[in-house]
# Entry
Amino acid sequence: MSIEANNPLLKSWVEVPVGSDFPIQNLPFGVFNSRNLTPRVGSRIGDMVIDLKTLYVLGYLENLPFTLDDFDSDSLNDLMKQGKDGTRKLRNRLSKLFSSNFEDLKANQHHVDQVLIPASSVEMMMPVRIGDYTDFYSSREHATNVGTMFRDPNNALLPNWLWIPVGYHGRASSIILSGQEIHRPKGQIKPSDDEDPIFAPCRLLDFELEMAFITYDGKNLGESISTDEAEDYIFGMVLFNDWSARDIQKWEYVPLGPFLAKNFASSISAWIVTLDALEPYKVEGPTQEPEVLSYLKYSGQKSYDINLEVAIRTESDQETSICNSNFKYMYWNMAQQLAHHTVNGCNVRAGDLMGSGTISGPTPDSYGSMLELSWKGTKPLPMSDGSERKFIQDNDTVIMRGYSQKNGIRIGFGEVSTKVLPAK
Ligand code: CA
# Structure
């Protein structure tokens, strides 16, 4: 089935401001409510949210594999049960309804008034009930920087890194939506090698610039998903800030890896941009040497050109851009991550979330964490209000944005923004 919704020539009868992340070629999915509306599934075009429940009730979503319950829901999980075929048909239908070539909906102002709601007047909600959360460690530049800082610059990558898309199982319960504030975590910190650990608020609070993909239902337990099949099991992507407490992490991570340094919060953006909408932005990935094992080999382009930016808004309300990176720098692609995740027979379910790992680029201004940007605190970053940052301070807001752009079409993710309040 072709992805008609991606046609770059399409224009919408809904106004889309110049530079918007949400042209008619995007049509992401999310969940929202408003003062007058119960939680429901929506899409987005320009500055308007599309109420899919009302669209269904008015009869515009007939002859699709969905029921009212799929849209009259506080999560996308039921909708995702229809798999890629279902959501592709739904996105194609939305594309038709809102295209300037199609008059039916546009001509009925009474319906338009019910279906389109200004984005400024809705409250976005967590789009999915996340079952399981896995985080990878797939940026070669990030792994090299961390290895250089904490181990040996000459052997920065651990021996398994070029063979395995390294990952760990995270915690789903503390994944939060953009806009929700967090408190600085507390925990065990070892101030120096010759001191005993103390219990204190984290002093080295960091973000990790990541993206995450959300899966459809996978195969049964015991079966595997190949790299060729992987994209059929990926619904879409969000921006992902995987908050990290570096001082807690340093003391606790041996021998089983990250625990409380990572599970106090991870923030996602509200709109899930479908993998279908990102299809035009596929690019070649980096050369993988040594040659990977056969189950990790892939054909075609599996990397995506997605520009990423991180900014800090300080208490003075001034914003400073501190990082520009790109998702295409990832060494291991999503197809390889999902193939690796399931190669032992581990099953994935609709609503599982897989983090990419910190996305660092090749240059110092493209590093995806404060740890790397300030090089362990040795190179403080100047803020536009005159202050400096080595790590994230109380009342700072970390904002991540991302978009793909080609031939005048921009497919964006909006932003993931989280303010850090003092420790409780
Ligand atoms: Ca991470």
